[in-house]
């Protein structure tokens, strides 16, 4: 309930705006991030700074984490001075994208300390985090879901995927694979159109009025590719990590990922060429270079 103190670990590009929405809703926050500057906007608004993840978990019964990689999530949750060393926390909400394997491991480690994991990856980017329009996929016991629902609804629309840890992660990886795939195929199609004499913006308008429309043609191209800014707000390294996780999990399940493997290769090339910190719309720059065109308009 509003007025309650919540813990937030990871106040960066996604965690920062989400924490801000919790302050807007009237919650008190205890926060921790390894980057001091990432905490400053929230501290100025009255959030309290903790010394470590364990300190956060000793000052709040519900702790939310928004972290970049599965290894960091595992270390923050279960490592020395991690959340599991806290003496007050009982529910840990992981908003990160870790894959089902890591989610299950973290859930087991927390359960041994009497804590419950809420597996709650989010989709919708920085814009969705700021505006509270994220898709939040949630797997945890029903009673725990009832407890955290009022908190999570501040972030956007909730999708309850059941009580098994890792199921929400599977849904998130499927979505992120498709988002990256849409960017790859749209880049190839528009590059062909431009080389054939079609104005890039006109072609995007045609696609968006036709059966080829997708998240890249409707959002990423108009916002970040056609203007040449390549600043959609999602890092190449994170997209590459998500797609690799997706392919690995699918292989372990016995699900073929023929198209997905190609998307992974395109992200590997983009990551190598432009770096992990580049925007994942840089995929279009790779295609532009290969095709000898520029997709602007």
Question: Please, could you describe this protein's structure?
Answer:
InterPro entries: 6-PGluconate_DH-like_C_sf, 6PGD_dom2, 6PGDH_NADP-bd, HIBADH-like_NADP-bd, HIBADH-related, NAD(P)-bd_dom_sf. Residues 166-286 form the 3-hydroxyisobutyrate dehydrogenase-like NAD-binding domain. Keywords: NAD, Oxidoreductase. The protein has 297 residues and is α/β, with parallel strands linked by helices. The protein has 2 domains: 5-164, 3-Layer(aba) Sandwich (Rossmann fold), CATH 3.40.50.720; 170-291, N-(1-d-carboxylethyl)-l-norvaline Dehydrogenase, domain 2 (Orthogonal Bundle), CATH 1.10.1040.10. Helix content is 53%, strand content 13%. It has 13 helices and 9 strands. It has helices at 15-24, 36-44, 53-57, 70-78, 100-111, 125-131, 142-152, 167-195, 200-208, 215-225, 236-253, 258-274, 283-291, and strands spanning 5-9, 28-32, 48-49, 62-65, 91-94, 116-119, 122-123, 134-139, 156-162. The strands form 2 sheets. A 6-stranded parallel beta sheet has the order 3-2-1-4-5-6, with helices on both faces. The longest helix has 29 residues, at 167-195. It is globular, with a radius of gyration of 20 Å. The termini are far apart. The mean pLDDT is 97.
